[in-house]
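Worked Example 4.2. Consider the chain below.
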Amino acid sequence: MRLITYKNREDSAMHVGVLINNDSEVVSLSNNGFPTDMNEIVKLGSDGLTKINKLLDSKPKTLSMSEIDLLAPIPRPLRNIMCVGKNYHDHAKEFYGSGFDSSGKKAVADFPVIFTKATTSVIATGDEIILANDYTNTTDYEGELGIVLSKGGKNIRAEDAYDYIYGYTIINDVSARNIQKQHEQWFIGKSPDTYCPMGPAIVTSDEISDVTKLKLMTKVNGDIRQDSIVERLIFDIPTLISTISKTMTLEICDVIATGPPAGVGIGFDPPIYLKTGDHVEVVIDKIGKLENTVK
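Applying the procedure from the previous section yields the following structure tokens:
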């Protein structure tokens, strides 16, 4: 199931819907007795998905994509987005060699590097990344697989981790590199407004038989920059969920960005930062395309 949040162009109200017919049409859930907030849809869990499937079987009224404007699937997450740094070997090496790495003394960390992005940084596919929010003019892209949790827990075992995943989305962990470096702790440099494009949809976990086989590709102005597959993660998805939950309670609707492959702007010599007019696309198999223009 491909779940989206959108605005109806007629009334500008926020709705949650399901994409059908190769993403050409939308069934509104909000107009059929379901909540208007994606967080509340996720909280309905598997029972909610069963009810949505029954609705779809009834052949309800649909909208065309031309009648709506997509929002981020979770326009305002309930908590900060949890992110993982240096989680592909090739990116860990390029980041370590860039001079921007303040996280440790070696390229590949012994344990996952975890930080967060503010909820106010989230924008939708099609929205603009605003460079004015980075006073250092060193804005970079990081295409990543995102996870949405279906339930919370503490001390989650790695072998049980996939039972906690509601679905997957795409996240571009846009970063203000010099701000990230100046503050050493990455939160401020990762959290400028508009610096967390997310979307276009949440694809429920039952739709993806093996998430590790998904291909991730990022293009800037049509040029391929990142090109990898999820199985190349240093710390895999079960390890991330298990590690984080050892010290803190994960909660339903939490969002985790799993880390970027190599090919980010600071990996070039000299670095290639985003500039006004650039078009960034992050594509992940079975999930879709997240695209944003830089302003």
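The two ends are 33 Å apart (CA to CA). The helical segments are 38-43, 45-57, 89-96, 177-183, 187-190, 237-245. Compare this with Example 4.1 before moving on.
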